Amino acid sequence: MNKIVNRVPINDLSRLPTPSPRRLAAVTARVIEQGQFILGNEVEAFEKAFAEYCGSGHCLGVGNGTDALEISLRVLECGPGDDVITVANAGTFGSVAIIAIGANPVYVEVEDETGLIDPNAIAAAIRPTTKAIIVTHLYGKIADMDKICPIAQSAGIPIIEDAAQAHGARRGGRHAGSWGALGCFSFYPTKNLGALGDGGAIITSDKILDDRVRALRQYGWTERFRVGHSGGCNSRLDEIQAAVLSEKLKYLDAMNSERRRIVEAYRVALNGLPIMLPDSGEDHVFHLLVAQHSARDQLQATLDQFGIDTDIHYPVPDYLHPGIRKRLRKISPLPRTERLMAKILTLPCFPGMTVAEVRHVTCTIKAAIGGAGADK
């Protein structure tokens, strides 16, 4: 193998084929000319378009994805003394939101192959103090909502979907975010549907919940300068980001298809080797391509040596973070979660990634784990 001159990035937003920088510049110029920048026509237009795209009755733009989770928990009246079931391998975002409202994260195990929340573990963790379940569609794949929803429904516990990595993913034709009481999205620039800065949204088909979200995202106002709901905050999607998102939404399905095409190229090239790639289908939009390999650290070092950027999403269970650990009432290690987190490795996968880059990555992996066909 020869070292590559230009590194293969794990992501490169400058290469996104659509929409063009010129088009995005025109969109932002239009907003500037209109002179309205917060909760105006552009936000309303995007909220309507995204709700229709997701098959949801309502969409409310907020400041970011973590705000979306926190506001959703407040909307469901979660608070001190309440338990919220979640996972410990999803980057702490759910944990941060749960702790911010004074509730207690209850971590449950995940499935070995997907890293998604285990429906059976949810059922076993439900207690009288359980107030909500956060289901994270990790890396872009929808969790097994066909099993999860009946469990939650029979217990009378609402589901909050963390769909921050799953824009456009579908299961049985139904979109991520539309299964639970509330669906939360992030529009951080690296997301499949990314803004040019921070942004987020909450979707729901429940008008009562929609009204609560609408109030809580802006101080708890039920009318101007009248606080009708406690727990409000200042978390609003701005007009420029909304206009950009409306434009980029037109290309979301095509970009997701491009991600799947790249993953399929990986799959063909690495077939038969001792590295696990996730299954591909409409229920996975590959926000991240996360593989599993028993000698992960060694493989990562080799890829770095040959100019290939990788990452680990995520390296430490939530309950081992000092700032979270001290807020937990009980700490129960999750052996399956920890074993999985020791094997995962995020490989480059993004719209605009070249055939040559994919070949370089796969050939390097082949050589590193005993296969043939390394770059000459």
List keywords for this structure.
376 residues, 13 helices, disordered C terminus, seven-stranded mixed beta sheet, 2 domains, alpha/beta, single chain, Aspartate Aminotransferase, domain 1, Aspartate Aminotransferase, domain 2
Describe the structure in your own words:
The structure is a single chain. The protein has 376 residues and is an alpha/beta fold. The chain has two domains: 21-249, Type I PLP-dependent aspartate aminotransferase-like (Major domain) (Aspartate Aminotransferase, domain 2, 3-Layer(aba) Sandwich), CATH 3.40.640; 253-368, Aspartate Aminotransferase, domain 1. The protein contains 13 helices and 13 strands. The protein has helices at residues 21-34, 41-54, 65-75, 93-100, 119-125, 145-155, 207-216, 239-249, 252-270, 296-305, 322-325, 335-341, 355-368, and strands at 58-62, 83-86, 104-107, 130-136, 159-162, 170-171, 174-175, 182-186, 200-204, 221-223, 226-227, 289-292, 344-347. Strands 1-9-8-5-4-2-3 form a seven-stranded mixed sheet, with helices on both faces. A two-stranded antiparallel ribbon has the order 6-7. A two-stranded antiparallel ribbon has the order 10-11. A hairpin with a 2-residue loop joins strand 10 (221-223) and strand 11. Helix 1 runs antiparallel to helix 8, helix 3 packs across helix 4 and helix 9 (252-270) runs parallel beside helix 13. The termini are close together.
